[in-house]
């Protein structure tokens, strides 16, 4: 296959280069990792018609269809028109004619206009999980039109509870569903089940008062997990109806400087989370002088510094009374430094048959 391929341009179109020259992998977006099962036929058709017959569940909950020849990309994009319109434009109310918050005429048969704002990932949340404090899919759908399409890169993970099954601590902007608990002493039978659950699986903030037979709570360290609600046989603990979220900032994987994110907001309402994310494009553009690069959010925060980030990202945001904001933030990165006297790799050459 003798042809020049602009790999960067193809990547923006959500096709990733493979080890085999001229072949690519399509990353089909699945916002929140949740769609109607009818779309499995779409994946099957693409994989069998233009791919190698296989697909991979991407680490960002995309459908990754492998083995697509470069010359077949236009046909795949044309076929994707209906899927993109239904999933992104209709279900998530994304305006495909606005890229990076600027007007742009999108050709419906040209596939995805950008890979910048990555597919928002989410755990199953309270749609199914007994631990879930929020509907992760619905939140993802509300966030998508704020950040997509855009050439500014951001990775967002949503976890339905502090178990953080979806690794909100390892992305640019992690969102964790938390709940504020209400104690109903008149229902409490003093069994201590909630105390034991908190001791075993959470932050050990509950204790049983032996004199009153009722529960006492050190509210300062409650993380809003809801383990007490699950454990109580008498419904003496319930979740407040209003949903709250914890926002984790600046986590990342990678070869050079992987790190765990830090708490930015705690007990934030959905409105606050959405308002903060509406400032993400403005912050990214400011840091990069309106010239998008392939850099994710954590690196941009490092460039600007946390104080400047906080100034821009909270501009115009009306915080709910319960919301707490980190005064400062210090990340601890993994440093790859050796204390051993190791010779260069080329010196560790073992004689073999070829010698």
TrEMBL record:
Transmembrane segments: none
Domain 4Fe-4S ferredoxin-type: 179-208, 213-242
InterPro entries referenced in this protein's UniProt entry, alphabetically: 4Fe4S_Fe-S-bd (IPR017896), 4Fe4S_Fe_S_CS (IPR017900), NiRdtase/SiRdtase_haem-b_fer (IPR005117), NO2/SO3_Rdtase_4Fe4S_dom (IPR006067), NO2/SO3_Rdtase_4Fe4S_prot (IPR045169), Sulphite_reductase_C (IPR014261)
Pfam families: Fer4, NIR_SIR, NIR_SIR_ferr
Domain of life the protein comes from: Bacteria
Repeat is among the record's keywords: no
Entry annotated with the keyword NAD: no
Protein name: Sulfite reductase subunit C
Source organism of this protein record: Faecalicatena faecalis
């Amino acid at each position: 296959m003798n042809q020049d391929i602009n790999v960067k341009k193809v990547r923006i179109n959500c096709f990733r280069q493979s080890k085999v020259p001229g072949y690519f992998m399509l990353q089909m977006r699945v916002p929140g990792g949740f769609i109607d099962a009818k779309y499995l036929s779409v994946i099957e058709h693409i994989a069998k018609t233009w791919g190698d017959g296989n697909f991979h569940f991407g680490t960002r909950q995309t459908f990754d269809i492998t083995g697509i020849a470069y010359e077949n990309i236009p046909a795949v994009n044309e076929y994707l028109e209906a899927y993109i319109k239904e999933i992104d434009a209709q279900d998530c109310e994304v305006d495909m004619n606005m890229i990076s918050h600027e007007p742009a005429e999108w050709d419906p048969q040209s596939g995805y206009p950008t890979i910048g704002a990555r597919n928002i990932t989410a755990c199953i949340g309270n749609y199914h999980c007994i631990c879930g404090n929020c509907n992760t899919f619905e939140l993802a759908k509300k966030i998508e039109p704020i950040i997509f399409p855009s050439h500014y890169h951001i990775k967002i993970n949503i976890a339905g509870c502090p178990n953080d099954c979806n690794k909100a601590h390892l992305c640019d902007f992690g969102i964790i569903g938390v709940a504020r608990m209400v104690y109903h002493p008149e229902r409490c039978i003093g069994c201590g089940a909630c105390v034991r659950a908190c001791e075993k699986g959470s932050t050990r903030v509950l204790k049983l008062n032996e004199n009153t037979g009722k529960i006492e709570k050190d509210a300062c360290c409650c993380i809003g997990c809801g383990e007490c609600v699950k454990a109580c046989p008498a419904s003496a603990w319930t979740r407040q109806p209003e949903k709250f979220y914890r926002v984790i900032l600046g986590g990342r994987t990678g070869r050079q400087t992987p790190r765990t994110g830090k708490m930015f907001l705690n007990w934030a309402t959905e409105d606050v989370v959405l308002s903060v994310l509406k400032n993400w494009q403005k912050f990214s553009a400011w840091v990069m002088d309106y010239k998008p690069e392939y850099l994710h959010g954590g690196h941009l925060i490092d460039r600007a510094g946390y104080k400047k980030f906080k100034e821009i990202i909270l501009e115009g945001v009306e915080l709910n009374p319960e919301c707490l904001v980190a005064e400062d933030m210090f990340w601890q990165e993994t440093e790859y430094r050796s204390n051993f006297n190791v010779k260069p790799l080329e010196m560790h050459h073992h004689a073999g048959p070829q010698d």
